[in-house]
């Protein structure tokens, strides 16, 4: 059964997903974080959330790239969950997984999938241009990959900075920290997944991605 806050966030993401403008979809991320933070700030103990610690799978595939994991870390650090890679019991596929209180885990998974859809849209546009440029004979696959990877790293850094800035501005630091119960459950898994730092080889594409990711930094979102 969905809670009121979960329904609001999912509706927000659904409306953003139906909008053809990536910019409108991007604004949904900060709004989702705002709703989650205010929910925990105003919540009366025992209200809405049952406190159960659950796993929610956001993305599953036989091929999980570095940026799938990196995005999972960014979302988990800003939405009160712990992110890691695990295997789904249903089919054994590797999945980006969020461990947290039921509402937080579901919101993290929904937000993750929404942001990944936006990123894939940008990458799809880049691959289309790359194909056209390679057809001219003056562009290599290796160069195209370097540019895409640099764009992705910039995009993720931009999102990370935007979410961190909103947390700091609104003094939500304690609102995005997982509960003690979630931390204990995560430690019991004995995982060693840490954030990995990557170097960019194309500063121009990195900055392009960074600017697009940091568009999340808006004062008023979706007219509210």
TrEMBL record:
Name of this protein: DUF2786 domain-containing protein
Residues of the DUF7168 domain: 57-189
Record-annotated DUF2786 domain positions: 7-43
Entries under InterPro entries matching the protein: DUF2786 (IPR024498), DUF7168 (IPR055592)
Top-level taxon of origin: Bacteria
A matching Pfam family: DUF7168
